[in-house]
UniProtKB/TrEMBL annotation:
<dbReference type="Pfam" id="PF12833">
    <property type="entry name" value="HTH_18"/>
</dbReference>
<keyword id="KW-0238">DNA-binding</keyword>
<keyword id="KW-0805">Transcription regulation</keyword>
<feature type="domain" description="HTH araC/xylS-type">
    <location>
        <begin position="158"/>
        <end position="255"/>
    </location>
</feature>
<dbReference type="InterPro" id="IPR009057">
    <property type="entry name" value="Homeodomain-like_sf"/>
</dbReference>
<dbReference type="InterPro" id="IPR018060">
    <property type="entry name" value="HTH_AraC"/>
</dbReference>
<protein>
    <submittedName>
        <fullName>AraC family transcriptional regulator</fullName>
    </submittedName>
</protein>
<dbReference type="InterPro" id="IPR050204">
    <property type="entry name" value="AraC_XylS_family_regulators"/>
</dbReference>
<keyword id="KW-0804">Transcription</keyword>
<dbReference type="InterPro" id="IPR018062">
    <property type="entry name" value="HTH_AraC-typ_CS"/>
</dbReference>
<dbReference type="Pfam" id="PF12852">
    <property type="entry name" value="Cupin_6"/>
</dbReference>
<dbReference type="GO" id="GO:0043565">
    <property type="term" value="F:sequence-specific DNA binding"/>
</dbReference>
<dbReference type="InterPro" id="IPR032783">
    <property type="entry name" value="AraC_lig"/>
</dbReference>
<dbReference type="GO" id="GO:0003700">
    <property type="term" value="F:DNA-binding transcription factor activity"/>
</dbReference>
Length: 255
């Protein structure tokens, strides 16, 4: 069976994560306890930015090629954020690869090293943009290891992932997701499992439950959350929640 034509136009592979998870940034000489990652701006003795280094696991003392100008500790959803979990331990991006990235990194260093009015707000926004641009490059580079990054970089499957991220409440069928991807049902199923490492149904359920858990922690009601994330009933939602987290959703509301 031949592949269906992939729908025209680009889709946004990152915005759903920035909507789902709060991003906080702190700039300090020492790493912030509990942070998910560290974003270092590396440069030269003239304080000119040359590289961005994103560390998710490796120690701050791990050598870099140059002088560390600024270190930003980033919190972005922790282990509940599948994008953070999927990242390699270290990502290195040359700022000269993009005029936009070069300008933002240079502005970030200038703001971080000089006390000015509104400094924390400016630093937070610039760091968010730098993180987004680094993540964009990670996705564009792709990976051979099965997982979310491989799916987001796949020329067809990323459309199905974005569709699930953007509309978790929709009653997605495999046929719908295959059509979004421009693949036949059998091609889609085989490719999704091989590339992402799980089935579309399992991935969608995990994404829905992650969103639900965060909504419950913010005080949302169970029935409303169940509907918001695409479960047919509160009871079906509760059963799935217990299977995933080992306790009923009411615990998340009062935890």
């Amino acid at each position: 069976m031949t592949e269906r034509p992939v729908p025209a136009g680009k889709v946004d592979r990152l915005s759903a994560f920035f909507r789902a998870f709060d991003l906080s940034v702190s700039v300090s000489d020492r790493p912030t306890p509990g942070a998910d990652a560290r974003l270092m701006v590396v440069g030269d003795a003239r304080q000119l930015a040359r590289q961005l280094v994103l560390d998710t696991d490796s120690p701050l003392s791990a050598p870099v090629d140059g002088q560390v100008l600024v270190v930003a500790s980033i919190s972005f959803g922790g282990s509940s954020n599948p994008l953070i979990v999927a990242l390699p331990e270290r990502v290195v991006v040359d700022v000269d690869e993009s005029t936009v990235l070069h300008g933002i990194a240079s502005g970030f260093v200038e703001e971080a090293l000089n006390a000015r009015c509104g400094q924390s707000a400016v630093i937070g926004r610039l760091c968010e943009v730098m993180l987004l641009l680094v993540l964009r490059q990670v996705i564009d580079a792709g990976t051979r290891a099965p997982g979310l990054l491989a799916g987001l970089s796949h020329p067809a499957l990323h459309r199905a992932l974005v569709a699930m991220h953007d509309a978790p409440d929709r009653p997605w069928r495999v046929e719908d997701l295959a059509c979004v991807s421009g693949l036949s049902r059998s091609q889609f199923m085989a490719s999704f499992r091989q590339t992402v490492g799980t089935t579309p149904s399992a991935y969608l359920t995990a994404w829905r439950l992650m969103l639900a858990r965060r909504a419950l922690a913010n005080g949302a009601k169970i029935k409303a959350v169940a509907q918001r994330v695409g479960f047919g009933s509160a009871s079906a939602f509760s059963r799935a929640y217990v299977r995933a987290f080992g306790h009923p959703p009411i615990v998340a509301r009062h935890g």
